[in-house]
Design a protein that fits this description.
alpha/beta, 6-stranded mixed β-sheet, 14 helices, globular
Length: 450
């Protein structure tokens, strides 16, 4: 026993750098606590534990600014060391190469390098992952017949919504098509309010009366069920910004399937004549309703469709490419050089809507290849991990928290009551309703026939 104590004393002296002799083992252990975080649970049977391989120390992602503690194995089998990792271990900011944009009637375009901070990366990751989980939950609820009617999902295109919102101001305006869930979220509406609206419940952002396509928020004018109809509305919002002189702009989004609508070109003409601060954004996800873009359009260079309006074609699967391109376009608009046409090349994983299986005009192998090689969330995750801007454990914890948030929102959305018949005509007009509009008066009486 004395020999064991002597060996332990010498080992502790080597670790702490102190001189053996007068100091006891207890004193050396106290000195050792300056170097490591030491916990000593009740010791198990010594003969049994010596036959087992030592367990690795648990990894703890500490939210502290202190330097990491030393991780030194001890001779005592009953003791273990807890290692921690602080924010100081991560790279706070990096400059990344991004894909060069194709230009139309522009001498210079967005930069080919983008700065990314750790905070921005985590924010973009959370936004895109939340949208992805929310859309997958909507798919599940629709197949359970809890969500009814039209429903157009956005999974695969998350970098577009996250990048656009990162590049504009909260005071700017945005209007989009019927694939609107992601922009509703990025404009400040909670997952719970979105899912409640999808399921037609009172807690929805439109009181359960709008459904998938008609969600609204301050300076967000929702989706539009008429193909391309939001484009002239967006030009009108930009005209209001110009008239008020508030240095604001409007981002007007439409799909490649709407790019052949005549009202787009009428809007382009007016916007160009009046130099409106409008960014016309075509989210080209390669397919319209049941067909590919090549079969529906004689020219798929959508960024050139403005003709006399400058255009940019952007990699819509990279959130940093989208952010830098929209920043560039926003600066032009604020300088009075708008409008501008932008094409975001992206991809949708689901069909055009929930009634479209999405594999009759494209193969499952094509979808899987995009998922495995060009997924926007996986791309950002790889950029952050390879540049030491986050840890795998940290992102995994975020994923778990997002799943929990979406699941709780879905449970609430299935339990929340539907709006009553007495409430059907409320919240239609902001002010007193005009008497001439039939069926929208608050004193209208409805009767359920179901």
């Amino acid at each position: 026993m004395q020999n064991m104590l002597t060996l332990l004393s010498n080992a502790l002296c080597r670790i702490t750098g102190r001189t053996a002799g007068a100091q006891t083992v207890s004193e050396l252990l106290i000195g050792l606590s300056e170097y490591v975080s030491l916990t000593s649970p009740a010791a198990p049977d010594l003969a049994q534990t010596q036959r087992l391989p030592p367990k690795p120390p648990p990894v703890v992602c500490a939210r502290a600014t202190a330097p990491p503690l030393a991780s030194t194995p001890l001779a005592t089998p009953a003791a273990h060391v807890t290692a921690s990792r602080s924010f100081a271990d991560f790279t706070p900011q990096v400059t990344l190469d991004i894909k060069k944009c194709d230009l139309h009637r522009l001498e210079e375009g967005p930069p080919v390098k983008a700065e990314l901070t750790r905070e921005q990366g985590l924010q973009y990751y959370r936004t895109m992952q939340t949208v992805r989980r929310m859309e997958l939950k909507a798919d599940q609820l629709y197949k359970q017949k809890i969500i009814r009617g039209f429903c157009h999902l956005y999974d695969g295109q998350e970098a577009c919504a996250a990048g656009v919102e990162a590049a504009i101001k909260s005071t700017d305006h945005l209007i989009t098509a019927y694939r609107a869930h992601a922009y509703t979220y990025t404009r400040g509406v909670s997952v719970k309010e979105i899912l409640c609206e999808l399921t037609g419940r009172r807690g929805g952002v439109s009181k359960g009366k709008g459904g998938s396509m008609h969600m609204y928020a301050p300076r967000f004018y929702g989706g539009n069920g008429i193909v391309g109809a939001q484009v002239p509305l967006g030009a009108g919002i930009a005209l209001a910004c110009q008239y008020l002189g508030n240095s604001q702009l409007c981002v007007t989004l439409y799909g490649d399937g709407a790019a052949n609508q005549g009202q787009l070109f009428e809007s382009f003409n007016m916007a160009a004549l009046w130099k409106l601060p409008c960014i016309f954004v075509c989210e080209n996800n390669q397919y319209g309703m049941g067909t590919s873009a090549e079969r529906a359009s004689a020219s798929v260079d959508y960024y050139k469709r403005g003709d006399y309006i400058p255009g940019i074609r952007v990699d819509g699967m990279d959130v940093l490419c989208v952010r830098e391109a929209v920043k560039f376009a926003a600066d032009l608009c604020r300088d009075g050089k708008g409008p501008i046409v932008m094409e975001l090349q992206t991809y949708r994983y689901h069909g055009h809507s929930m009634s479209d299986p999405g594999v009759s005009y494209r193969s499952r192998e094509e979808i899987q290849e995009v998922r495995s090689k060009n997924d926007p969330i996986a791309l950002l995750k790889e950029q952050m991990l390879s540049n030491n801007m986050a840890s795998v454990e940290e992102l995994k914890e975020m994923d778990i928290a997002i799943r929990k948030e979406v699941e709780e929102a879905a449970q609430f959305a299935t339990a929340d009551p539907e709006p009553s018949l007495d409430d059907m005509c409320n919240h239609v007009f902001k002010n007193d309703p005009p008497l001439e509009v039939r069926g929208t008066n608050p004193w209208s009486v409805f009767k359920s026939v179901s």
